[in-house]
Design a protein that fits this description.
This protein is of the alpha/beta class. The chain is 26% helix and 28% strand. The chain has four domains: 112 residues, Chitobiase, domain 2 (2-Layer Sandwich); 363 residues, Glycosidases (TIM Barrel, Alpha-Beta Barrel), CATH 3.20.20.80; 74 residues, Sandwich (Immunoglobulin-like); 139 residues, Jelly Rolls, CATH 2.60.120.260. The N terminus is likely disordered. Bound molecules: 2-acetamido-2-deoxy-beta-D-glucopyranose (NAG). 2-acetamido-2-deoxy-beta-D-glucopyranose binds next to loops. Its EC number is 3.2.1.52.
Amino acid sequence: MKIVISAMVLALTTLGAAAQEPALIPRPLKMEQKEGRFDFKSSPRIVADPVFKPAAGLLGEYLRLPAGTGAASAGSIVIVRGKENGYQLKIEQNRIVLSARQLADALDGVNTLRQLYLLNGSDLHLPAMHITDSARFGYRGMHLDVSRHFYPVEFIYKFIDLMALYKFNTFHWHLTDGAGWRLEINKYPELTKTAAWRTHNYCMDWWANGRQYLPEGNANAYGGYYTQEQAKAVVAYAAKRGITVIPEIEMPGHSEEVLAVYPHLSCTGKPYENSEFCLGNDSTFTFLEDVLQEVMAIFPSRYIHIGGDEASKKAWKNCPKCQQRIKKEGLKDEEELQSYGVRRMEKFLVGKKRKLLGWDEILEGGLAPEATVMSWRGEKGGITAAEAGHDVIMTPGGYCYFDSYQADPATEPPAIGGFLPLSKVYSYNPVPAELHAAKAHHVLGAQANIWTEYMPTTYQVEYMAFPRMLALAEVLWTPLQLKNWDDFKTRLQAHYPLLQKKNVNYYRPSYQLQIKTDIRPQTGSALITFDSEQYRPLICYTLDGSTPTAASAQYAGPFEIKGSAKIKAAIFRDTAMQGQPASLPLDFHKALGKKVTYNEPYYKGYAAQNEATLVNGYRGSLTYGDGQWQGFLNKGLDVTIDLEQATPLNSLSVGFMQLTGPGVYMPPAVEVYTSNDGQQFTLAQKIDNDVPPTHNKLIFKDFVFDLKGASARYIRVKAKTQKGFIFTDEIIVY
Ligand code: NAG
């Protein structure tokens, strides 16, 4: 009897396992499970059509199987030419057939098979299935800054290998920047003899301590560079895996290191004074063309990235040569001077059958005729360029900057700022809603950027890249309608052990809970949803602000509540709370959903929910980029709320945040006025700020006004800026 039961259990588990789809990331277009399984035990041969020989070789390496061309026998893995887009993979009882139209697609199929194999752990078989798959975007990129910190070439291999596993096809190698030049250039040896070495190891220390370069071999020198041989080997290694390497050589800004060793290329002629090349000087162009000439001999990519970001243009204003150039070329100003430089480089590159790629600043002063734009300051540059018929690659800071924090900064190693949790990366759609559908094809894809000011080790780079890279992989590959956050999280569970096996350091999903509310002012109710990075967490909550315990109500899915509540929720393991509870005061306050008139405009880049933001019942969270915090510049906040009728008042509170890094400060004071006719306002109270501008950690403050005894139809709230931005949410009236 006992034996029968365990046999039944076994049968059930096997069945259950068979019904489960494989945890592939990115999720393929179509997967169908079939009867039977393919066995690797007999050491099957991999046999490919001659055009797919490299794919067969690679698969052989991955699966440790013999590979070649020639005739297939029973039990073989064959790679054949197909007619359809993408690749088709048929895993059957006695064979595996991978078909593809071209090598790049066959390599994608190889990586699917490799992932299935790795996900299966030590099991030497794969369940039968048919996969039909192709990518949503043709450009699937990862960027890595090797200037701010230098990483050994072995790490570049590892990074590329992991990119391939998740079907990325472009590696953007940020090889030069002020913190160090990283590529051997034969004609200009000082670039690697001096400009690749600096006084301090940690970039931010170097930055804070005078930013000096040292000769190679100096006992205190930190740095390094890749030889041309090494770079060529990286290109070949990547190409074999279906990955194109795009080199970036920064110009005209971010070039302090070059000007330190070749000061005649700077406007003042002196080292350590400027970060921009002098564009009035023809030697600059000779230098850049010489460098690019050697770069092109190493990198066969169609695109060459010329940087173009954040040139201050200040030195050009006072430089007789630059001014002379402006005059002679009939340019309007320094912006057009930058554009002149970019066009000149483009002409050079086009002459060598290459294409120019640059950060979105290359739009300023007019875009070069055939340039492709990388949109990093939001999506605006990308939209403008695409509308004008240029190709674009989306890398907006809010979704693609993997140097941002992944969780509450208090719980994370130091990073540059920002907040980009896994779920936000996953939510990204590289085709902006505002873009005219007829121009959408100009969005070639997207890319995450890893700027490494705060990443002294490869260990840290991996931590910032994983698992966010997996979320981006799916953004770039899987059709929108198949994307599903919960399903992704489920599959992600299987990739943690895989990353461990590959010795990758990754960020562990946090216990931070997000409370989402869908408020319906008409019915005075709200739909509450909890979300976290954890997989199927046990969530317990209260609605009265008390700290939940394992005995509190258990979350079983979105639920509705009526009226105001103080939601507090946490994740539990058995009876133990994990991390800190999340709380959200939900306010069915008197101003909820009422009309707000802006006497001063909000900043369009941080519009949040536009006119609804300040009285929508949601409070801004830890980051000003969450779509709830509204930003104000210049004259600051000045809004009038219409309560629709004279209303007895009790209190008003309005929230602000301060985060000095990106220039977000408290207002010096907040004033509240009331009125019954919307014309004559009387000051009810003014509250001064007590957070000093030197407080450089993230801090929130509610300014709370006592309005007892007052009655009004209109309430006006004013708060000036002190410097930079103010960010506001929410105005709560009782
Ligand atoms: C920008 C800079 C980059 C820096 C990064 C940090 C671009 C195109 N330029 O200020 O040099 O490392 O952000 O997030 O991103």
